[in-house]
Amino acid sequence: MNCWKNNFNEKTLNQAIKYKNNIENINYDGYTFRATVKSKFSVELIIQDNLLFDMSCSCAKKSSCTHEAGLLYFLEEFPEILEDFTNVTEADKISDLDVSDDLKVISDTKLKKFLKKEFKKNPKLKYNFIKQFKSESLIDSKAYEKKLKSILRNGGKEMGFYKLHNMRTPLKKFVKKDIPLLIQQNEYELAFKLLNDIMDIFNDQIYWDDDAWYEIAYYYREYVYFLLENGEFGEHDKMRVQRNLSIINDLVI
Ligand SMILES: [Zn+2]
């Protein structure tokens, strides 16, 4: 690929490297290379004869963003993918062959040995393997959302006020333990959303006489500043965080 890095500034390039492991739904018709980045952003690259002509992304930035750069890093690592999509005729022939009988008799050892060898010369296979078997250990975002919901439900409003005594300990634990775990796994958007879900409910009712609340606010600010610096968020999310931060900054030193 030609010098694609010239289209991006250094900060974008540095952030984008990690997205090369977050590529899905690859498709290439010999002209437009399409993929989903971070399970969310649709990126299109116009590539012909290994030259990059144009690119676009569905994110707010639209172009020269980290998602495009992440996809280009991915292609830099696995350039064979472009060829694989172009050479479909051979793949078509093979797809008609039935190997189920052969799979029944092959030993685990032989299979593992074969895979190891294939991974070396076929990065796309290795990529698919990693994606398939690593995905099971990835974060289950629904579980985190459910956990927070149940904490907030237990501390639900009574006579117009949240029962902070019911949620103080689990909420503090959630902010101190679960959020950094998500950040460690690069789940920035989910961490950001959950932190603001917590903060939003305190907008009108702040328990300034409660130590747990101070602690929650302190960690919120720490993590949110980190996320703002390292992640990319939509306008709506940024407005939420500005509102929450202004309340906290007025009152927590
Ligand atoms: Zn983008």
Domains counted in the coordinates: how many?
3
Name the average pLDDT. Answer: 83
Poorly predicted ranges: none
Order of helices and strands: HEEEEHHHHHHHEEHHHH
Spatial strand arrangement across the major sheet = 1-2-3-4
| Amino- and carboxy-terminal Cα gap | 51 Å
Q: How many strand units? A: 6
Can you tag this structure with a few keywords?
253 residues, alpha+beta, 3 domains, 4-stranded antiparallel β-sheet, two-stranded antiparallel ribbon, 12 helices, globular, binds zinc ion
Description:
By secondary structure, the protein is α+β, with helices and mostly antiparallel strands. It folds into three domains: 1-96, no CATH class; 98-138, no CATH class; 141-251, no CATH class. Helix content is 60%, strand content 12%. The protein is built from twelve helices and six strands. The strands form two sheets. A four-stranded antiparallel β-sheet has the order 1-2-3-4. A hairpin with a 3-residue loop joins strand 1 and strand 2 (32-37). It is globular. The structure holds zinc ion. Residues 41, 57, 59, 61, 65, 67-68 line the site of zinc ion.
